Amino acid sequence: MSKLVIFTAPSGAGKTTIVRHLLQRFDNLAFSVSATTRKQRAHEIDGRDYYFLTPEEFMQRVAHGDFLEWEEVYPGQYYGTLRSEIERLWQEGKDVIFDIDVKGAWRIKQAYPDKSLAVFVMPPSPKTLFERLRNRHTENEESLHMRIARASEELKWAPRFDVILVNDHLEDALKQAEKIVGEFLNTPH
Ligand code: ADP
Ligand code: 5GP
Q1: Distance CA 135, CA 116 (A)
Q2: Lining residues, ligand 1, CB within 6 Å
Q3: Is residue 187 part of a domain?
Q4: Residue from 73, 82, 83, 98 to probe ligand 2 pocket by mutation (most atoms less than 8 Å from CB)
Q5: Full domain range(s) for residue 140
Q6: Strands 77-82 and 67-74, how do they pair?
Q7: Assigned domain for 24 exists
């Protein structure tokens, strides 16, 4: 039976960096591509990084019950996990890895408690989180502040998850992530 690996954290903590690394390390892992209404970034590809939807398309899919979970993560910006995405990957026999916000992570964990591992990526400090987000150069001042404003609330969710992974020195965090995920995927259940 396929397993679910959930990575969650405030924006800027490093979960996308860690998830990309794990995808290269574990052949049977596949990324759950979420749907979102936020603007596509320059390097992003529709269908690989996200399914980019208009707010109307997103709400139609909400009305059809197409989402396993969805969330207005930032004001006016919707994100969600499509049921069809997980089903598609399971049919291929893949283990699925998620990069989602704390509430979505909690819902998926509750939906599949016996076959999921939820990892909270903790930044070394709020100051470092802010610097990483700023240095990523993906946000304007408004969205940067929106993300920082939400971060302190998200940090409080950390103890709910199975593992807290501190992302200070990247090489150490990547090695630790490999160990945690490798052990989980290799444990029979
Ligand atoms: P998230 O997906 O959680 O929003 P990202 O993976 O996009 O975070 O990381 C945010 C920024 O911080 C990126 O520019 C990334 O290259 C950088 N970064 C990630 N981990 C570290 C680390 N341990 N040390 C320094 N910079 C990091
Ligand atoms: P970003 O805009 O930086 O790609 O993502 C912003 C936040 O939305 C991150 O915390 C990311 O993990 C979260 N996110 C991405 N996809 C989903 C999803 O399908 N559901 C939920 N609930 N959050 C998501």
Answers
A1: 32
A2: 9, 11-17, 132, 135-136, 167, 170, 173
A3: no
A4: 73
A5: 4-180
A6: antiparallel
A7: yes
**In a domain? residue 109:** yes
Please tell me the predicted confidence (pLDDT) of residue 187.
87
Burial profile 98-133: b = 16 or more Cβ within 10 angstroms, e = fewer: bbbbbbbbbbbbeebeeebbbbbbbbeeeeebbebb
40 is a domain residue: yes
Total of domains in the chain: 1
User: What CATH number should be reported for the domain holding residue 151?
Assistant: 3.40.50.300
* Blockwise average pLDDT, block size 10, the chain, 189 residues: 94 96 97 97 95 98 98 95 95 97 97 96 95 93 92 96 98 98 90
Q: Which pTM was predicted?
A: 0.96
Q: What is the 92 CA–ligand 1 centroid distance (Å)?
A: 30
